[in-house]
């Protein structure tokens, strides 16, 4: 049975995961495709240690999982439903915020 406490815990974990700009950048990148920590660090201009720390937090929150591949570890969003929900959440926020910059073709620039 899902209790109020269980729902609050889930909201807390999600909020904690998205509250940090670096974790949000990592999540957005992982929505595109799974990635290795070294590649994430290079793509996002971060140190490997920084990325590893944030990935550990996201893993502890249950939002990402690690898939060992030989000597490397690949990270991905833990469940397609989470990926879908995160994508939908971003889209809704962009639609609600009239001042958000648009990156659609033929859109007027802010």
UniProtKB/TrEMBL annotation:
CDD domains: HTH_ARSR (cd00090)
Cited Gene3D superfamilies: Winged helix-like DNA-binding domain superfamily/Winged helix DNA-binding domain (1.10.10.10)
HTH arsR-type domain span: 3-97
GO molecular function: DNA binding
Keyword DNA-binding in annotation: yes
Keywords: DNA-binding
Name of protein: DNA-binding transcriptional ArsR family regulator
């Amino acid at each position: 049975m899902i209790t109020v406490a269980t729902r609050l815990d889930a909201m807390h974990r999600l909020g904690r995961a998205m509250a940090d700009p670096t974790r949000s950048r990592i999540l957005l990148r992982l929505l595109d495709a799974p990635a290795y920590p070294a590649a994430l660090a290079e793509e996002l201009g971060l140190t490997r240690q920084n990325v590893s720390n944030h990935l550990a937090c996201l893993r502890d929150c249950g939002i990402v999982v690690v898939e060992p591949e030989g000597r490397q570890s690949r990270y991905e969003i833990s469940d397609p439903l989470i990926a879908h929900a995160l994508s939908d959440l971003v889209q809704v926020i962009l639609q609600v915020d009239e001042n958000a910059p648009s990156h659609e073709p033929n859109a007027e620039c802010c």
